[in-house]
């Protein structure tokens, strides 16, 4: 199977199938880990008509979750020309990602040739993301954790709630600051960051998650290495080594995050992906901001704006 690339034309997601010397049909798009932006599957295909004696190719669109499969569409293509435009139906959803994905299979029965492209994700973006947009107030370049804590106490109305947890973002040219309200129970706030703001269906290497204990003030950072094998998408947790620090008083925790740890160049108006998950002391998520955020699907996260 040849290397793959993305093809999006006139807001229609195209699955382009090209030829190679070894295969009658070889997929060029979509690629593995691609995020489709609408659920209609329009296939652009080229066929080696000289080798297709029965002039038929079978396409199967499948939704897979932890090895369990559900066929979304099956189409036997009557090959009439070397190039054809094929409508393979719809997926019937707006979000497929994380550990769930689409697999696209093709086969030519009489020649015993077949191939698969997977995992493919789906995320239909809303026309407006303003409801999930948070703002980080800009502070002086000299501001440190103590100055941020003092500022938070005068800006209590700016605290935002993620289920049972509350936090407030600030920034300057050196750091991103997150001020969290402490809690008697040893629950957690988990912050997920997508510096690309790509709104993807799958976690990628640059995405980072920081866990803050709301009682003990402890911090833990992680990222994931993803893999696709035997109809399963898996994420292997890795330790995120960083220079993030925390300072606390009796009521609040100030997290100081150097921008280089997030691989973000800060400028006024910059937007990046952010979600907050409220979890118990075992890490089980009890609620999130945005409410429908999924830690393994960055496209479901909200956005943070660095105010000018």
Say what the CATH topology of the largest domain is.
Immunoglobulin-like
Portion of residues in beta strands equals over 45%
N- and C-termini, Cα separation: 48 Å
The poorly predicted ranges are 1-22
The overall average pLDDT, rounded, is 88
Q: Treating each run of at least 4 consecutive H or I residues as one helix, how many helices?
A: 2
CATH uppermost class of the largest domain:
Mainly Beta
Largest beta-sheet characterization = 13 strands, mixed
Radius of gyration: 23 Å
Strand count: 24
- Elements, N to C (H/E): EEEEEEEEEEEEHEEEEEEEEEHEEE
The residue fraction in helices comes out at: under 10%
Domain count: 2
Per the principal axes of the C-alpha atoms, what is the gross shape? elongated
What is the structural class? Answer: mainly beta
The CATH architecture category of the largest domain equals Sandwich
Overall description:
The structure is a single chain. The chain has two domains: 8-123, Immunoglobulin-like; 130-306, Immunoglobulin-like (Sandwich). The model is unreliable at 1-22 (pLDDT under 50). The chain has 308 residues and is mainly β. It starts with 7 loop residues before the first strand and ends with a strand. It has helices at 145-154, 259-262, and strands at residues 8-9, 12-18, 26-27, 35-36, 40-46, 56-65, 68-78, 83-90, 95-96, 100-108, 113-123, 133-138, 160-162, 165-171, 175-181, 188-194, 208-213, 219-229, 232-239, 245-248, 252-258, 271-279, 285-289, 302-306. Helix content is 5%, strand content 51%.
